Amino acid sequence: MTAAPLPPAQADGDGRRFAGHPMGLAYLAFTEAWERFSFYGMSALLLLYMIQHLLTPAAAGEVLGLASFRSALEAMTGPLSTQAFASQLFSLYSGLVYFTPIFGGLLADRLLGQRRTVVLGALLMTAGHALMVVETAFLIALSLLILGTGCLKGNISVQVGHLYPPGDEGRRTRAFAIFSAAINAGALLGPLLCGLLAQRFGWHVGFGAAGVLMLAALAVYLAGWKHLPADRKRPPGMHGRMPLTARDGRTIAALLLLSMIAILPCAAYYQEMNAGLLFIEASVDRRLFGWTVPTASFNALDGLFCILAVPLLIALWRRQAKRGREPGEMGRIATGYLIIAAANLMMTIPAGRADNGATVGAIWPILLYALNALGFTFYWPTLLALFSRAAPAQLNATMTGILFLSIFLGNLLVGTLAGSWEAMSHAGFFALHAMLAFAAFAIMLLVAGPLKRLLAPPPPDAFATKPQARRQTSARPLRRWA
């Protein structure tokens, strides 16, 4: 038996739509675009800023708590060079912003609701960006950014899924692809703008620009308040917490397994923003018409190629759907992992040349970003849509936060592996990352069948429960469709 499905997303009163979707998608997408604009703009500067300025003897002693933090980290890892410590700190930061969404989801599910939690996150992130211009407050600034992202990131993704009624899986998946395109518009423009400002006017101007962009994200979100989906509440007549059923437990276990598998390709993908930048800085010819392209600006390529991939993949999937050959969720995820494996395997060619002292053309990192972006666009929107649909409603935002945990753990692995950049051959380094992504692909081939059955959407008539029948069963511990 099933309980009453969650109420479908309400249509806008004026009937307006955005590219065939509810108007709420536009506001959520543009909020995320500005937020990612600020996040990726700051992140593109962070590693090089630490290596070239903050961790130098003249500046490091002024940073509140940095010496104690480094001592604690080296107690676990052993002595670290400046590059290795910067890579570890960068990976901890970029990982923790994907760990805290679990707690942001719990805060939304149990106390504030998704909308107020997103606003809280935006305010914390704005404060964090503002403090990035104060060197002594560097670790405080990173902490605020981590907490703010935890409140915002998972909950805004959950709201995208809540715009669609149960059973509307095709539009929900395409909506997440559009949402990802908005994210990557920010990922494209943020590194370009902040990298150029930092190169011309100094690091702190680039960080300050990221703070202004975060304010723009908050303004867009508040402007679209009336179009946003309502916070999820218990159905009328239900008292206390709805217990999880045995089916819910199996669903949660299946989603946790998918999250664990995703750690490996996440590490292979996000390494382009860590050791990948070190490779570009040292071994890539960055000259363009007499001008040297800032290394940080290469991160904009990830956003560019993700944007280009979205309309192509949506068109491909629609065409395949008309022919009855559209790949399922597991197929899309596995395909993404295989593409990321191929991208890193390809990089063994220029890396081998760099090992012999050669400088390589910029076409190689461009191809790496392009293939990684294509693989990411295959698997990540699909995972977001799947978690939004399949996770039990009582834990919907929390489970989406757990999905982001795979990026947290993947980034911890990125930092650990980046610490060996100076010790390994660069060709071997990229080959190792290709193996990680290929291992995830192989595991998906083994588990795709059982997971497909466990996470299959309910038949259409499951949502057509009559009101009288719902009243008769509402007192039982039943599942709500996410």
UniProtKB/TrEMBL annotation:
Topology with respect to the bilayer: Multi-pass membrane protein
Region (Disordered) location: 462-482
Pfam families linked: PTR2
SUPFAM superfamilies reported in the protein's UniProt record: MFS general substrate transporter
InterPro entries xrefs: Dipep/tripep_permease, MFS_dom, MFS_trans_sf, MFS_Transporters, POT_fam, PTR2_symporter_CS
Keyword annotations: Cell membrane, Membrane, Peptide transport, Protein transport, Transmembrane, Transmembrane helix, Transport
Transmembrane segments: 46-69, 89-108, 176-198, 204-224, 251-270, 296-318, 330-351, 363-387, 399-421, 427-448
Domain (Major facilitator superfamily (MFS) profile) ranges: 45-452
Subcellular localization, as worded in the UniProt entry: Cell membrane
Transferase keyword on record: no
PANTHER family: PROTON-DEPENDENT OLIGOPEPTIDE FAMILY TRANSPORT PROTEIN, RESISTANCE PROTEIN MDTM, PUTATIVE-RELATED-RELATED
Name of the protein described by the UniProt record: Peptide MFS transporter
Organism: Sphingomonas colocasiae
